[in-house]
Write a structure and sequence with these properties.
With 125 residues, the protein is mainly beta. It has two domains: 63 residues, no CATH class; 60 residues, no CATH class. The chain contains two helices and eight strands. The strands form three sheets. Strands 5-6-7-8 form a four-stranded mixed beta sheet, with no helix packed on it. A two-stranded antiparallel sheet has the order 1-2. The protein has a two-stranded antiparallel ribbon with strand order 3-4. It is elongated, with a radius of gyration of 17 Å.
């Protein structure tokens, strides 16, 4: 299955079988519409017949790749599940302003990421 997904030539999408599980990856260039939408997403849809997704333990839906946002503290990235393009664990926001523990040259940078199982931002100093 992983070989078929990778071999399908879908822009930005690859897959691997690891310890008997299917892992599907986006390098950030995958798109929900297949060409123009710059969202780094993978869309899983159930076919008209059969139970392939359920058999693989997958759920139909839109899955976004982790993202890097470099913005001031006033432009909070839309990474939450309630946002338009939710982002998974591993997404990073580099704040470019001093307020709220951001950083400006000479680079007093505070890094925050969406923590696995943590509701909100986790600061890494």
């Amino acid at each position: 299955m992983a070989t078929d997904i990778t071999g399908a030539g879908i822009t930005g999408v690859s897959a691997k079988a690891v310890d008997g599980k299917l892992y599907i990856y986006s390098d950030g260039s995958s798109t929900t519409d297949g060409s123009t939408d710059d969202d780094g997403a993978i869309v899983l849809t159930a076919g008209a017949t059969g139970t392939l997704l359920a058999d693989l333990g997958l759920t139909a839906g839109v899955y976004y790749a982790p993202a890097l946002e470099i913005k001031p503290h006033t432009q909070v990235p839309e990474f939450k599940t309630a946002d338009t393009r939710t982002r998974p664990t591993g997404s990073v926001w580099f704040k470019t302003t001093d307020a709220n523990l951001g950083g400006v040259p000479p680079f007093k940078i505070a890094v925050e990421h969406r923590g696995n199982g943590v509701h909100g931002w986790v600061q890494e100093v």
